[in-house]
Amino acid sequence: MDDQGEGLVMDDGVCANITASELWRTTGYGRGRRKRTSCSRRAAVCLGLLALVLLSVTTGLCIKYRTERDQILNRYTGLPENAIGNYSRMERLEVQLETSYTSMAEKKDRLKANCTATAEERDQLASDKRTLEAKVTQLENQLKRLDGQIFHSATKDVWRESRKYCRENGGDLVVINNRKKQFEINEMSQNGWIGLSDESEEGKWRWVDGTTPTDKFWDRGQPDIWDEVDEDCVVFHTNVNNPLLTWHDHACSTKHLAICEKSAFQ
Ligand SMILES: [Ca+2]
Ligand SMILES: [Ca+2]
């Protein structure tokens, strides 16, 4: 502000009764005022333009702010939903895993039980195998012992002819004088005459070697008289159920294979 302006302000405040013409004439106030009015208008226009610019900038910033805010809100609004969805999926997955684990545990228990049963069965089979192997070895030993000692005729014949066959082949009808030999003959599964008869004296059973039987292995109901025929000679009938019940007396005139024993007179 210049001195003239300051004086004008002082004049406006103190000398309110001075007329405009007097002021125009004495101080040139009108020219200064026109000049200042023009400046004020330009300033107002500038201020208005500035205001418009500011308004435009502010509006743009507001729009940008709102846009970014909405984007942020949308992004952060979506996060909880995604998080809930992920959590639900995690829960379902956990349930599935627990179910699978339970199923696997049950399968493991069943496999363990089966394994135990299989192991027991394996042990039992191994035990049975050992028993059978021992039995086979025993039978093989028996057969080796009898091999060449016990033999059979190829054809059936009466008791006397059967004995003759045995004697002509280096032996006689077999003598069974103990349980062990009875079992061994039964294992051979071959029926036939043996060297026992009461032909010389009824009821007095003797072996072909002249001895009398100590162990007797008559089948149930034997010896007997069948159809009123005297039965004086003995046939060995293999008995898989009871090897100690195999002797049957028959009529010596009937025909059977011969069970011979080389060692009888050797
Ligand atoms: Ca008799
Ligand atoms: Ca009989």
From TrEMBL:
Keywords assigned: Coiled coil, Disulfide bond, Lectin, Membrane, Transmembrane, Transmembrane helix
Transmembrane intervals: 43-61
Molecular function as annotated in GO: carbohydrate binding
Pfam families listed in its UniProt record: Lectin_C (PF00059)
Statement: the UniProt record of this protein carries the keyword Amino-acid biosynthesis: no
Coiled-coil intervals: 122-149
Highest taxon in the source lineage: Eukaryota
Residues of the C-type lectin domain: 159-261
Protein name, as recorded: C-type lectin domain-containing protein
Organism: Denticeps clupeoides
